């Protein structure tokens, strides 16, 4: 089977983008995640204003919701790939786009195009709320550091979404993929806190944490933001590659 031309790839990408932006569950998930983030930001900011959080920077408090916020992006990634298996839509897709590897690759690219601005806006909204409420009490952070941190948070949420989409493509069903990923991020991962840093910090979520969270007086980051980004991207690319290989070999 011949490889599609660049013009065809552009059309496939456009088709995948169109499918995602017209999927109601995508926007419901993003809207719900945005609202949840503001509620969590309000809660953490309230704790900070009461002084029980100690002396913290606006960024630390504004991004404290990231550990919970990632659940929305996990769901987003899974929905993006599993939705096509509902009602057998994937068969129609493969009839129109017979290049399986290209189809799944462009789906991940289309998902990244949607996720990057959404992740930045949602992460920044929490920080903006915290800044508005605590600008006179918390430790202020420099604007360039704020931008770098928000870019790191955006990168982590994007990698998490694409990784989740790859897992969704592997399982092809929403519920098993959700159980595995939410079980890892919220049950298994917290249990690894007693593991040696040389093992723990190379897990996808732990490495991602170092992409955006600055070291404090209590904790030190094992990885630099660039190292964390590299490891997170490596996990994501490996899982996407595995998903593409299996997608090409098995029936729809």
What can you tell me about this protein's structure?
With 252 residues, the protein is mainly alpha-helical. It has helices at 6-21, 24-49, 58-62, 66-82, 89-96, 100-134, 143-171, 174-191, 197-200, 204-212, 225-249. Helix 1 (6-21) packs across helix 6 and helix 2 (24-49) runs antiparallel to helix 4. The longest helix is centred in the middle third of the chain and has 35 residues, at 100-134. The radius of gyration is 19 Å and the shape is globular. The mean pLDDT is 86. It comes from Paenibacillus chibensis. This is ABC transporter permease. The chain crosses the membrane at residues 26-47, 68-88, 108-129, 150-171, 226-247.
Return the structural class.
mainly alpha
For the biggest sheet, the summary is: none
What overall geometry do the principal axes of the alpha carbons give?
globular
Number of strands: 0
Helix content bin:
over 70%
Helix segment count?
A: 11
Order of secondary-structure elements: HHHHHHHHHHH
């Amino acid at each position: 089977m011949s490889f599609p031309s660049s013009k065809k790839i552009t059309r496939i990408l456009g088709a995948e983008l169109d499918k995602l932006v017209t999927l109601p569950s995508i926007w419901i998930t993003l809207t719900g995640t945005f609202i949840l983030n503001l509620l969590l930001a309000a809660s953490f900011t309230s704790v900070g204003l009461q002084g029980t959080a100690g002396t913290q920077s606006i960024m630390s408090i504004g991004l404290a919701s990231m550990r919970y916020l990632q659940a929305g992006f996990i769901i987003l990634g899974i929905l993006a790939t599993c939705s096509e298996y509902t009602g057998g839509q994937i068969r129609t897709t493969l009839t129109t786009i017979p290049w399986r590897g290209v189809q799944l690759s462009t789906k991940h690219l289309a998902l990244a195009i949607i996720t990057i601005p959404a992740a930045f806006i949602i992460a920044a909204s929490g920080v903006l709320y915290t800044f508005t409420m605590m600008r006179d009490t918390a430790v202020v952070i420099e604007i360039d550091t704020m931008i770098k941190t928000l870019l790191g948070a955006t990168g982590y949420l994007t990698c998490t979404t694409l990784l989740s989409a790859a897992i969704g493509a592997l399982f092809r069903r929403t519920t098993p993929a959700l159980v595995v990923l939410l079980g890892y991020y919220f049950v298994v991962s917290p249990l690894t806190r007693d593991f040696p840093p040389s093992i723990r910090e190379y897990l996808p979520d732990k490495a991602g944490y170092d992409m955006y969270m600055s070291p404090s007086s209590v904790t030190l980051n094992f990885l630099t933001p660039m190292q964390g980004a590299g490891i997170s991207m490596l996990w994501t690319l490996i899982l996407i590659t595995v998903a593409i290989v299996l997608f090409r070999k098995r029936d729809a």
